[in-house]
Amino acid sequence: MSGKRGIVLLGALIILLTISLIGATLASFFFSVSTIAEVELSRAQALYLAEAGIADAIYQLRQGGFSGDATEQRVAAKALGDGDYEVIHDPAAGLVTSTGRVRGVRRTIQVKYLPF
Amino acid sequence: MKRNGFTYIEVLLTLAILAILFVPTMQLFSHAMEATRASRDLMTAVSLARWEMERVKNIGVSTQRLKEVGNIVWPPETEDPIKLNGRAWRTYRTLKEGTEPLEVTVEVKAEKEIKAMVRLVTLITDTSWGQQVTQ
């Protein structure tokens, strides 16, 4: 009998440890899934803010162009929705760069056009 | 015979440890399942919002035409909401009046919830310099 002393406690602790390990692994997995979903939302919001910046740039070009020097024209960050967007226009290269930012997520779109 | 008593105490001790530690472990599972459900709903709502936003951006009509059509609920309130991943959904497209470029907001709400789960905002302008497409 002396060889079996503590065997029940040991067995129970092993079972509990196993369940805890499975639980911790699952919790970690589900947390990462949750984080991915939230980042996906931020990425979508940032993308449409960047597109908003492009639309703003097109509108300004149609209205006669940006203010600023001829090499780089920067539009101050404008708040929209849950974030903001920033636009940089390079008239010499005919390049508009727009960056949308939401909760630390950034998406950038560049549009090249033929200067006229 | 005395040694059998030690095993009995061990069983009691084991049950006590299990009782103390098993409940939080099960709660962990419960919270994990709830988080998974919330993530699935959020991903579904993001997909619906993106679908509606891409639709309005690529429908090929002028901003003037969009203003004439006005705010849109899809599916309309008179119809059943769309059922996806175990929940019922509606998308709401709203235009902010007096904005140039036109500010468009797409919200996705799950049925019986007041607050939108997802909200996407963008600006839309006419890309044609010539005659505008009106249809």
- How would you sum up the global shape of chain A? rod-shaped
- Calculate the terminal CA-CA distance of chain A, rounded to whole Å: 96 Å
Strand content of chain A is 25-35%
Average pLDDT reading of chain B: 85
Rg of chain A to the nearest angstrom? 27 Å
Q: What is the number of domains of chain B?
A: 1
Put simply, the count of helices of chain A is 1
Give the H and E element order of chain A.
Answer: HEEEE
- SSE pattern of chain B: HHEEEEE
Based on CA atoms alone, the radius of gyration of chain B comes out at 27 Å
Number of strands of chain B: 5
Low-confidence spans of chain B: 131-135
Which structural category do the helix and sheet elements of chain A fall into? alpha+beta
Structural domain count of chain A? 1
What structural category characterises the helix and strand content of chain B?
alpha+beta
Helix-strand layout with pairing:
The complex is a heterodimer of chains A (116) and B (135).
Chain A: H1 7-62, E1 73-80, E2 83-90, E3 95-102, E4 105-112
Antiparallel strand pairs in A: 1-2, 2-3, 3-4
Chain B: H1 2-58, H2 63-69, E1 72-74, E2 82-84, E3 87-96, E4 102-110, E5 118-124
Antiparallel strand pairs in B: 1-3, 2-3, 3-4, 4-5
Describe the protein in words.
The complex is a heterodimer of chains A (116) and B (135). Chain A has one helix spanning 7-62; strands at residues 73-80, 83-90, 95-102, 105-112. Chain A is of the alpha+beta class. Helices cover 47% and strands 24% of the residues of chain B. Chain B contains two helices and five strands; from the N terminus they run H-H-E-E-E-E-E. Mean pLDDT of chain B is 85; it is low at 131-135. Chains A and B meet through helix 1 of A and helix 1 and strand 5 of B.
